[in-house]
Every structure is written in C-alpha cells, then in structure tokens.
Amino acid sequence: MTTDTVETADPGSAAPAPGKPAKRRRARSPKFLLAIPAWTWFILFFALPVGLVLLYSLGEQVSTFVQKPNVSPSVWSLDNFGKAFDPAYAPIFWRTLRISITGTFICLVISVPFAYWLATKVSPKWRGLLLGLVLVPFWTNFLVRTIGWQLILAPNGFVSQKLQDIGITSGDLALLYTQTGVQIGVVYNYLPLMILPLYVAFERIDPALTEASKDLGANRLKTFVQVTMPLAVPGAIAGMLLVFIPLMGDYITASLLGGAKGSMAGVLVAEQFLNTFNWSRGAAMAVIMIGFILAALAVFAGIGLVLRAIVRARRRVSLPEAVA
Amino acid sequence: MADADSSGEQTGAVELVDVVKMFGDFTAVDRINLSVRPGEFISLLGPSGCGKTTTLRMLAGFEEPTSGELRISGQPIAGTPPHKRDVNTVFQAYALFPHMSVAENVAYGLRQKSVGKADMALRVAEALDMVKMRPLADRRPRQLSGGQQQRVALARALVNRPSLLLLDEPLGALDRKLREEMQIELKLLQSQLGITFIFVTHDQEEALSMSDRIAVMLDGRIEQLGDPYTIYEHPASAFVAGFIGQQNFFRGRALEGGAGIEANGSTLTSSRPADSLAVGSDALAAVRPEAISVSETDPGAAVNVLRGQLAGISHLGDVIQFVVSTGGGREILARLPRTKAPRLETGQTVWCSWAADHTYLFTAEQADLVLADPASDKAEVLAGN
How far, in Å, CA of A262 to CA of A183, rounded? Predict the structure, then answer.
C-alpha cells in the first residue's frame, strides 16, 4: 500500500491520515492468535492424552492390584501389542469393524433419501420442525436411550409380545445381547450424525442445477445420480466420518445391548482399565483401535478415489484435435 | 412427444393461448396470448414481477399453467415433463454443473440422449467453437469469468439443437461492455442457427437491440407486442412509452379532438390525435428527451414551447443532457447531440420546444405508474447536481 491510495481515500473513512501511512496496519496482532484457544484445547485434551496412551501401551502392569503401569523406559516393550492380538480378542476387533462398517452403511442408506426429501421436498416452514425432531433423541441422555432399547429388544418385552400377538414371530425376540441388537442400537444412536451433514449438503445445492439437468433431458433419477448426489458427496463423507469414528470406539451401546455375543472393542478396552487394572494392555488395545480406524479410513479413501476416477473417466469427453 | 418432422415448417413455433398461472391467490400470468414464429427472436420485456419469467418457466416445463394452452412446434405440451421437451434454457445464473468440466457440461444433454462417444465429442467441439470456448474445454466453471460461463451455458443449451431456446436474463450478471458484445454475438448466432429465441429481460436497451419483436409485459399481461421500431415510435400505453427509452410526462386535461392537453397553464399540442380521450378528461402527454430542443431565446414559431430555468447539464459522451426546471417542482429532460447543443449555463432562462408529432397522448390510467418513478434518470441527474 502506498501513501497515494491513503490520500485518495474518503477522508471520513477509517483510513489512516496522510503522513501516517499504512505501516500501522501491519503492526496489528498476528493472525495465529485466533487459533490459540483451539490449539490449547487440542494439545491439552487430544495430543497429550494420546501421547499418554502411547506411553502406557509401552509400559507394563506392576500387579493386578496396582492401577498405574510402570512406564520407565527400561521396561518399554511391544509385549502388550502381542497380548492384545491374542486370538481370543481377534473376533471382537473384527466384529467391531464389521458392526461399524455395516452401521455406517445402514445410516447412509437411511439418511440419503430422508435428508434429500427434507432439503428439497419439504416446505421451508416445516423443515425446522422436522430437523428438530431428528435431534430430539439428543436431548435425552445417551445411556438412558440405550437402556430404553434394552426394553424394546428384550425377549419378554412389549415389542416381542406384540410381534407374537399379531403372529409375525412365533417365539421370543432373540435380539438383546446379540450382534444384531448392537447393530440396531448403534444405527439408532448415530443416525442424526449422518442426517445433519447430508441435509446441509443437499440443502446447499442450487435448485437451478437440478432444473438445468432436467432441461437438458435427464429424468429425475438421472438428475439425482449425475448432479444431486455427486454434489452431496462432501456431506456424505462428513457423515460417514462422524458415524464411523465414534462407532468404532462405542462402549455404551455394545456393553448394554451386546452382552458376550455382541461385545465390541470399546468394551474390551474398558475391561482392561476397569476390571483387570491392566492399563498397559488397555492402552495397547486403544492404540490398535486407532490403527484400525486409520487403516479403515485409508481403505475407504482409496475406494472413494477409485470410484471417483471411474466416474470421471466415464464422464470424460475427449475432444478431437482442434483445427488450426 | 411428436417427432420434429411431422410438424414440418412449424418447428420452433410457439403458441400461448389464454395462458393463466396462479400462485395461490396471486395471478402471475393473466391470460396471455402470444404467437411466436419459427426462427423468431422475441423478447419478453417488463419490470420484475410482470410474469415474464413465469411464462418462460411454463414453456420450459418447470411450471404448469393454471389454465390455457401452450404449443411448441404445433404440439400441445401440457403435462410433458421438462426433460422430454424439445426446449433448452440458458439460466439466469448459468447453472453450470460445478463438478464437471466445460466440455462435460456441454456434453450433458447429449449424454442423456445416449449420443455415441465420437459423435458427442464432435458436437461438443463444434458447440464450443461456436462460442469460442474450445481452448478452455477442460476448465471447471468456477475457473471461468462471468462472460465465459455465459458462453458455456449457451453452448450447453445449443448443442442439443432445440427448436426453441429460452433465455432468462442471461446477460444480467455481465458488465456493460461485455453485455453489449454478447448482445451482438447472441443475435448473430440466432440468425445463423435459425432457432427460435425467447429472451426474458428487464433491460429495454437489450430488448430493442436484439429482438425481432418485443412483448412488453406488466402485471401478468402483455401491454404491447411489436417490433422494436413500433414499440419505440408508437407505444400503445403510457407504461410502454415510459418503460422503453425515457419520457417526459405531463399531466393535464385533454383538448377537443384529442389534439393535445392543457397542463399547468400551457397547451401541449399533438399531431397524433388520441380519439379515445374525451374533452376535459384526465390525460397524459409524453415527450422523449431527444425530441426536445433547448435554446437561449424564445423559438417563437415552434408549436410546443415551455420556458424554464436550466437546472443541470450532464455530458453523456456524444449527447448532452439538460434538466430544465419549469417551476412547481416540475422538470423537463432534454437530450441534444453535442454538435447541436448550445453552450448554456445552469441558472439561465431557457426555452424547451418540440414539434407536434413528438407529443404522445394517453389516458391518465397509468399515471401513478409512470409519474412516480424514483429510479428514473431525472432523479439521478438532479441528485448529481
């Protein structure tokens, strides 16, 4: 900035007076100040705890009666990881991954049509109310809601009874303390986290784009597949991350609805910390879970990139050489 | 959907018969009748809310008329969804697909018709050449300027070779210079392709410069339909007179035989008698700024003369605009070519004069509409002085 521009500026504006050129403006506080609260939070409550977990995972249990592990560098080893990979635990890790992937997928399948309908078909007057209804479950404690599902899924519960009364099932409902029970519970608990970002994504799409698509000869389905859904992909990705990551570490749903048959890694880790006081092994399991999540995300991202490349290749138009 | 051949020479003809569109209680389009010839460039011109866009959307298929009939190329199109109409639209904000390249955008319509790869590439290239966008074929819409996006939108619509192209204020977002360039290009393209263009705009200059015919719309009705010359020279109503170009309006009592009006103690004579005006009835006289001469001395012989004080002078390039105050808060706007304009100073007494055939007479029905126009140039000029 030069003094010239300052002088031509409106004298009534906030521009500095001539002779005191723009140097003053540069001297204002550095931009990173704004990020300090976030960084402090991130370091104190994310980076530091994760570091501690990593440290614990390398240490060793002192005895079954002492909670804190010995983490002096002299005892550092990867033994805990070996123990955590014990064949006895493997099914639980795999089940966790299976429940999380299936759960994320089911949430996506339920949310896409709903969010699309809410964002494009419902009049703005009702949208707020319906969006509020989506969030209503969040007003109730997560734990209480999950306990509620115990009643619904119980073999002698009212749902089981009703189903038998109308003759849909012949015996008691066998869902509580099974993997299916957990699956139902997690989809219920995490569904809003998928609906919200998808709704925002659909809502942000300019209606003129779908009109343009129809104007160019695409019917409703083709318009959805070729225009609407591709533009909502960022929302779908956000929703999948919001559901998949916490779902991988879910403890409450699995411990209340899963029992032994539907247990998940979160329950396993909690047991190490709370029952057997083996913080080191628990920490190792937690680290393994982080690894699982990152690996799963990498695989998803890879699949996503391949799919995108395929879609783009199919859409691609290679023009003939221009005639000079 | 009828194939284009069966309708033969009707291809591209558009017919609106008693078309009405209501939104709840609001009548957006009020019994419009319009017949567009194949290959014609017709503009729907009017202020916002006059129903021009609604009319366009009914032709595109995004709205269904409440009553009346629409025919394209001779075929009734009621109930035909947009994707099955032989019509394409250039949208106001272009509505280019942001996730596709320029070429992919243009190819979109062809892909829906399952045109083969090779043929598609050829036609996309041809369409991009037509709008001079071939070198930017691989760009994304957000990497393009407004004018470039506009060209792509045009290519994307025209590549489908529709029999009718609808344009919804497509030049509104462009700056003046670019807009004028695009006007010329659009008109050229249209005459080369022979496709019927229905062009919606609120910009009278745009409509005048490009159209074969203009339909001036107000409150859901067509006020006047005619070629630019007729619309400009023989406005059918005070609204049309005021909306196309600029006018000085005078309100007064009609004289006998519709030969003029008596306004504020002066007699304004017209050689365009309006028989419909009863003697003594409330009437409007309209005179275009470019029809008025301004002089330092009493022109004497002139038919219509009004004396006033020169309140402002604006230099508009090859034209000089004078604002003359005739007392009582009334102003006359006069525009003279630079070569014919006298050198005058603000504050001096001047005479405005014009010939009788430049006075247009109307009933005072639309007086409120044309007299209360805060956005008129007059107000701007006054504010500037």
Answer: 9
**CA–CA gap between residue B317 and residue B341 (Å, rounded):** 12
Chain A positions touching B92 (Cβ under 8 A) are 208
Range of the domain at A213: 99-262
Task: Yes or no: say if B169 and B90 are a contact pair by the CB < 8 Å rule.
Answer: no
How distant is the Cα of A113 from the closest Cα of chain B, in angstroms?
21
Of A208, A218, A319, the CB nearest to B91: A208
pLDDT tens profile A265-298: 999 999 988 888 889 999 999 999 999 999 999 9
Q: CB under 8 Å to B163, separation ≥6 — which residues?
A: B4, B11, B12, B38, B72, B73, B86, B87, B195, B196
Q: Nearest CB to A209: which of B87, B88, B95?
A: B95
Q: Could you give the C-alpha distances from A205 to A128, A132, B224, B385, in angstroms and in order?
A: 18, 21, 38, 46
pTM of the full predicted structure? 0.82
Question: Each residue of B220-250: pLDDT tens digit?
Answer: 999 999 999 999 989 999 999 989 888 999 9
- Residue with the two structure tokens 């319009």: B34
Extract the residue ranges of chain A whose pLDDT is less than 50: 1-22, 324
Could you give the 3-state DSSP secondary structure of residue A194? helix
| Ranges for all domains in chain B classified under CATH 2.40.50.100 | 238-383
pLDDT of residue A25: 57
Same domain, A44 and A68: yes
> Token pair 């204020």 is at which residue?
B169
Mutate to test the interface with A, among B64, B111, B139, B167 (most CBs of A within 10 A): B111
Residues of A in contact with B59 (CB under 8 A): none
Query: A154 and A235 share a domain?
Result: yes
A to B CB pairs, distance under 8 Å:
87
Looking at chain A, which residue has its C-alpha nearest residue B61?
A215
CATH of the domain at A149: 1.10.3720.10
Q: B277 CB contacts (<8 Å, ≥6 apart)?
A: B254, B258, B283, B361, B363
Look-up: residue for tokens 């906030």? A14
- The answer to whether the CB atoms of A208 and B103 lie below 8 A apart is no
Q: Evaluate whether B159 touches B130 at the Cβ level (below 8 Å).
A: no
Contact criterion met (CB < 8 Å) for B83 and A219: yes
Measured in residues, chain B has a length of: 385
CATH architecture of B238-383: Beta Barrel (2.40)
Given a contact cutoff of 8 angstroms between Cβ atoms, the answer to whether B121 and A320 are in contact is: yes
- Which chain B positions have a beta carbon within 8 Å of A320's beta carbon? 121-122, 125
CATH architecture designation of domain B14-233? 3-Layer(aba) Sandwich (3.40)
Contacts of A315 in chain B (CB under 8 A): 100, 104, 111
Residue B6: its pLDDT value, please? 45
Rounded to two decimals, the ipTM of the complex is 0.84
Dist CA B185 CA B172 (whole Å):
15
Task: Extract the runs of DSSP E, i.e. beta strands, from A79-177.
Answer: none
